[in-house]
Sequence to fold (337 residues):
Amino acid sequence: MTQTKVNIVTVTYNQEDIIAQTIDALLAQKTNFDFEIIIGEDCSTDNTLKIVQEYQRKHQGKIRIITSDMNVGIEENYLRCYKACQAKYVAICDGDDYWIDPLKLQKQVDFFEKHSDFGLLGTMIKYYDERTHEFVKGKSIDQDYVEYSFDSLFIENPLTSSSVIFRRDLLEQFLTLYQKFKVELNGFIDYSLWMYFASKMKVAELNDVTTVCRLSDTNISRNKDFKKSWQYRKRNYKHYKFFNSFVKGIDRKTKNKAAHNRAVWYYRLTAVNADVEVSEELLSIFKSNKDYVRYCLFRILLKFPKLHPMASFYEKVRAKFLTLTNYRDNKKAFYAY
Fold:
């Protein structure tokens, strides 16, 4: 019997309308090796379980379902799927996303086989906006692949979970770390994995668009419920602080930039949720970075949180100004050349 080389982890909950598209895309992968799909079905209240069971019946030995009689939540759902992985490599495709390149896995495994010093590999993606029913192009690069250092990942996460594949031995190392620091790492989903992997091996993204990520209000990271959204973002902030102290040798400039990015991302949610502890940290970050506009805005929001649209308007205007400034500077550089 040929040994399975890749486990594909797919977690799903109440996705009866879209889960078939995801599974069909996984089964359409063309590889010269065996792969197995592990589906973490979190006790859906719709027909999701029946659908994945029918796929399992039709594709014996290709699909394994992990479920239970009660909802366990997204973290435990991922954990039980990760613990069930036995292949050399582990890929992720969430139940609300899907792959569009039938050679995705083959390309990524070929890359790993040629580059033994890389531990995590993503790809380019595009988005499908369910509100407008339009596809939105993601970022692009002008080389075969781009490599990310731990420092760059620490500052900002460019990777999308449904596009990545990684070495299972790194995953096992992380799970050991997770058991040791369960309080600090509680609620992990993906970014903690990326930071840990990048602290051990090289990380890269291929210049191939292989994955479609759905944009909807049900996405955990895009939830419009400020309380639920902050629960998710605060966990990310907690994990960032953990790796800030866990990984040695991060230079001061990188730490400052990473801290300021977090403050920019989180200050509106922090104010709306009246999180005093984090608010004090973010105020200090803005002040030390001489970001006095945001510092003053944040102070106002802490007293009048309903004014958060004012801060959002500032961020939009600032982003447009920076875009125009970069365009003007690039144009000058082009003509100067």
